[in-house]
Amino acid sequence: MRQIRTDLAMESAGAHGAGELPGVSVSGWDAGGVQITEVLIENEEGAKLLGKPVGHYITLECDGVRQRDPDARTAVGVLLGEELARLLPEGKGPVLVVGLGNRMVTPDALGPLTVDGTLVTRHLYSELPHLTDRRMSPVCAMAPGVLGVTGIETKEMVRSMVDAVHPRAVIAVDSLAARSVSRVGSAVQLTDTGIQPGSGVGNHRSALTKDSLGVPVLALGVPMVIYAATIARDAFEQLAGEDETMEQDQALDQLTDELLAGSMGEMIVTPREVDALVEDAANMLAAGINRALHPGLSDQDILTMMN
Amino acid sequence: MRQIRTDLAMESAGAHGAGELPGVSVSGWDAGGVQITEVLIENEEGAKLLGKPVGHYITLECDGVRQRDPDARTAVGVLLGEELARLLPEGKGPVLVVGLGNRMVTPDALGPLTVDGTLVTRHLYSELPHLTDRRMSPVCAMAPGVLGVTGIETKEMVRSMVDAVHPRAVIAVDSLAARSVSRVGSAVQLTDTGIQPGSGVGNHRSALTKDSLGVPVLALGVPMVIYAATIARDAFEQLAGEDETMEQDQALDQLTDELLAGSMGEMIVTPREVDALVEDAANMLAAGINRALHPGLSDQDILTMMN
Amino acid sequence: MRQIRTDLAMESAGAHGAGELPGVSVSGWDAGGVQITEVLIENEEGAKLLGKPVGHYITLECDGVRQRDPDARTAVGVLLGEELARLLPEGKGPVLVVGLGNRMVTPDALGPLTVDGTLVTRHLYSELPHLTDRRMSPVCAMAPGVLGVTGIETKEMVRSMVDAVHPRAVIAVDSLAARSVSRVGSAVQLTDTGIQPGSGVGNHRSALTKDSLGVPVLALGVPMVIYAATIARDAFEQLAGEDETMEQDQALDQLTDELLAGSMGEMIVTPREVDALVEDAANMLAAGINRALHPGLSDQDILTMMN
Amino acid sequence: MRQIRTDLAMESAGAHGAGELPGVSVSGWDAGGVQITEVLIENEEGAKLLGKPVGHYITLECDGVRQRDPDARTAVGVLLGEELARLLPEGKGPVLVVGLGNRMVTPDALGPLTVDGTLVTRHLYSELPHLTDRRMSPVCAMAPGVLGVTGIETKEMVRSMVDAVHPRAVIAVDSLAARSVSRVGSAVQLTDTGIQPGSGVGNHRSALTKDSLGVPVLALGVPMVIYAATIARDAFEQLAGEDETMEQDQALDQLTDELLAGSMGEMIVTPREVDALVEDAANMLAAGINRALHPGLSDQDILTMMN
Questions:
Q1: H or E stretch including D259?
Q2: Measuring CA to CA, which of B211, B240, D258, D275 is 20 to 30 A from D232?
Q3: Which of A133-137, B193-197, D143-147 is the least confident region?
Q4: CATH of domain A9-225+273-306
Q5: What pTM was computed for the model?
């Protein structure tokens, strides 16, 4: 069973071609220039096939985001707000936004930068109880840092904060790795399955899921790198043409594993302008989060309060 | 009873002139070009006089630090390591370094930047138990962010981390405000009394003390700003000369309170080169922390591992 | 003759009270929530009175800018574009935008950051001659750095670039120092008199004027600091009440000179949130410049191309 | 004739195997843990073979640099200072250090960051003529920015500065692209041939040579990226084993050209920790430049004055 490495469920599904996949349903539509793809992994068979847990995976894509068009970011932010609101569980308690990753490593800074743009309100409720009337939610946020900088597992840190603030849900934001160059810096994936170990730009993410944290975990990410193995594969497939055999395929899998185990494994493949793209992506995600959690605020209110 | 606003106990003591103060003992010496001042607040009388809790306050000063001399930073770092080791309680469990302040506000970034330079080791102990033999300690670190960015009180966040990792002590690092221009960016204060509410560059620090956290709290800071009221006072005192009266003094106190309650209260007074000074100071503090906690490592080891 | 220290002509004029000033005319109006003040220094008498050269000084103020309202920045940017277009000389050749100041000193980074947001086009004209039809102008930009970092006088560097690219005008952008706290980070001054020596946040700006460069020089700036002496003066005036005498006034002048000659002279007084304010201000100035120079582009075009 | 893409002459030479190359002489030695390789391209035949102009290319390599060991950086800095001093022409006039590249694109920021660490002195000579006695040289520096940000060709900008300050030599610093992962962030190349068009991290560097500027140009660089095509090649060669044929080789060349012409061409391959590595490399280069130009200063003096 062939699995490609990608944090995007839609790429995992796409690698299997156009036909029906057992335990997986894929649908897609366009909304105002944004392509939305929803992958539903229905059961363990589908999960095994795509290498991802059972749940919903929604991807929003818009070419303009990569061309740094602010209108495109706004369009994606609006739709993201709607989808996020749909997946967020009802209930009491604040929403806790967790920005994963290392602020000092540019393509891994998406989570911390998104936290910077998130409109936090939890601390205002004691003084300003009328906020509830304005259809704002209590929101808090943290950027826990990475294990090498803190000496504390991310899971441990988030878990203890969940115990302290009793959120009704966690939204975990992370930089992803994708298969296709065209999705880097532009596609947004939203899932209700949380963060899986080993995903993301940093090598050793720990799992942040309902199982590990005790509350529902939505995960939100944008691919900021592609796997180096992608280049080797693309080159090979282009060279081999259509008639790639199963043996060649397995040889290539093994080969890229070897490459990544060596010095190439420390390398990342990223767009030249990643410094700017990661800021754009963080603004877009923060806009979506703010819309979903504070539906009573106008765009203008959110922009003003975000700053 | 006259109290000047400063986070440095030595300046509070100094404002009372050269004589003996009830409940306060001050001593000073020079060590290799570094001036060390130790203020011991012995009882509540002394505490009330200086506006600071009972405990030890050690200040290290070296002119060269402000002139950005790396040798001066090294000299202070070495002495700081010794003093810190002397105050650190024995015991089991890691030391938790907490970097207070807002990374996005230059003079308030001292805490988070110090965490960046702290050599964390707690996560290595399960894999590398022989580390203990090398006279290294388990160390973990966090930069909790400020209330306006997280919606969570710093105390709440640190408290929950203390509950999770059971440290033998917390070292809290913070930007301070001082009275004297000459100490900005250069003097280091170390105290065993923790962080007091209302101190620091951010207006509303919450208390981090043994009472609030349940473990000993050492606090470490460098003044990065001076109080705006200082300038008004300096100007006034220079104008009035020696014969300032008690009434004038009180009038000035009231005046500066009014100034700070107005738009001037949002202003900070800081050296032009504060962007560079705060990085220097963070490196100096991190070097001191690393020496105190990992006495078995050479300077070279520490430098290499810090990077 | 009393002169207050400020880079804003409107503050210099305001310090003389509400009456008529010889050689100076002041007018003001409101445009969509933005207060516009135009100071015209008509002759040498006015120039001596205000300590600034003969010419036009237009200040745009909007409270919302300081509160970080993006709408307020847009409103100021639009008006700035119009005023700038009005002052720009007709003619052949590109416009050269010069961002003065030191990128590494937060409040002094306004110029370099504005250059980052300026839409440069000069290099496209050889390949895309139809740009002219779209009512775009050839624009080039430089951030020459400061003397301590380059070893080259700013004037020398700009002069040699003027000789190379033959611009029809220079727009010099600089951080200013103001008298009033309320104008820091929010008021924009535009003048046709160029940059005067000794102004700005850095101590020793060299003159950039039509005399020194040989082409018209417009200067554009936002105050990012206030003079430390301001605080002393404000305190004193509040203390002394209405009945401040001329002798007291002179004493205070002398006093603040002494303060600034000492260690206080290295200090700047700046808003706590200056890191964010200087970015906002740079975006606002770049938007104004882009509108003035590329009137054929829509706001959307400019935003997209700026990124 | 096979040419691999790399900015390092030693890699171009190495691709041809161990034998003698016509018009090229290669020598290597070890100095205190630093491997030095000198490639001398003697004539046009050698130049054509390696795809680089006639001249000297000295590469300094030290594993510790990539591991972020400060001792390793110091060792390379010392040797670089010696080699640079050897190549610098005698004569009157300052040395002009030019930092190429885009400060806002992390791996392309090496040049501007090196300028930040360069000890400039040219502006001090009029006030402090005794500097000459201390074996310091007049040094000035500029970071001209990239064409897309300035609208001015780098060559044009440097040329006009050369006309203004009449340097005895230019030292141009640039981020390079290499073939081998192990050299990224660690190998330093020094050459007396200047900067060639099309090299570096930015796509369209203009030539900075004695021909184009009228004064000798030394170029100094560290690879911060590898060519994406490298990965494809490495994968392929590993797959094909030893018996790669000439046709396969050519097919692969064509293939990687195609890859780079597509969306992959915008991608860069860079170490995960490039943010930190580029700062280390800039410090190392600045240390070498400062030693070469100010031999009368001790290391301590240089460190202090650099800050």
A1: helix D246-261
A2: D275
A3: A133-137
A4: 3.40.50.1450
A5: 0.90
Determine whether the interchain pair D123/C151 forms a contact, defined as Cβ–Cβ distance below 8 Å.
yes
The 3-state secondary structure of A65-125 reads: HHCCCHHHHHHHHHHHHHHHHHHCCCCCCCEEEEECCCCCCHHHCHHHHHHHHCCCCHHHC
For residue B55, count other CB atoms closer than 10 A to its CB: 18
User: What is the share, in percent, of chain D residues with pLDDT greater than 90?
Assistant: 60
Q: Between helices C274-293 and C299-306, what is the axis angle to 10°?
A: 120
Contact residues on chain B for A164, CB-CB shorter than 8 A: 152, 156-157, 159-160
DSSP for residue A206: P
Find, among C116, D166, B164, the residue nearest to A155 by Cα.
B164
Residue with tokens 């199982």: A211
**What's the average model confidence in pLDDT over D38-56?**
96
Beta-carbon separation of D152 and C116 below 8 A: no
What is the DSSP track for C53-74?
Answer: -SEEEEEEE-HHHHTT-HHHHH
Determine the 3-state secondary structure of D131 from DSSP. Answer: helix
Query: Over 80: is that where the pLDDT of B191 sits?
Result: yes
Report residue A28: phi and psi, to 5°.
-150, 150
Q: Which of A160, A170, A152 is nearest to A206 (CA)?
A: A152
Residue B20 pLDDT exceeds 70: yes
Whose tokens are 């200013």? That residue is: C176
Q: Distance (Å) from the C-alpha of residue D304 to the closest C-alpha of chain B?
A: 5
H/E run at residue C163: helix C154-165
Chain D residue numbers touching A276 (CB-CB < 8 A)? 104
Mean local confidence (pLDDT), D242-269: 67
Residues B195-241: pLDDT tens digits? 987 677 765 578 999 999 999 999 999 999 987 766 766 666 666 66
Beta strand B55-61 with B34-41 is antiparallel
| Rounded Cα distance, A178 and A230, in Å | 9
Helix A154-165 to helix B154-165 angle (10° resolution) is 120
Distance CA C52, CA C103 (A): 27
Q: DSSP readout, B152-195?
A: S-HHHHHHHHHHHH--SEEEEEEEEEES-GGGTTT-EEEESS-B
Chain A residues within 8 A of D231 when measuring between CB atoms: 228, 231-232, 235, 259, 264, 267, 269
ipTM of the complex: 0.89
- Within 13 A of C287's CA, how many CA atoms are on the CB side? 23
Q: How confident is the model at residue B286 (pLDDT cuts 50, 70, 90)?
A: very high
Task: Locate B254 and state its tokens.
Answer: 């009231």
Is C304's CB within 8 Å of A70's CB?
Answer: yes
Instruction: Assess whether pLDDT exceeds 90 at residue D237.
Output: no
Question: Which of D101, D180, D231 is CA-nearest to residue A269?
Answer: D231
For residue D261, what pLDDT band results from cuts at 50, 70 and 90?
Answer: low
User: Each residue of C245-281: pLDDT tens digit?
Assistant: 656 666 666 766 676 666 667 788 898 889 999 999 9
Structure tokens at A172: 């975990």
Cβ-Cβ pairs closer than 8 A, A with C, add up to 26
Tokens of C23: 């050689």
**C303 contacts in chain A (CB < 8 Å):** 70
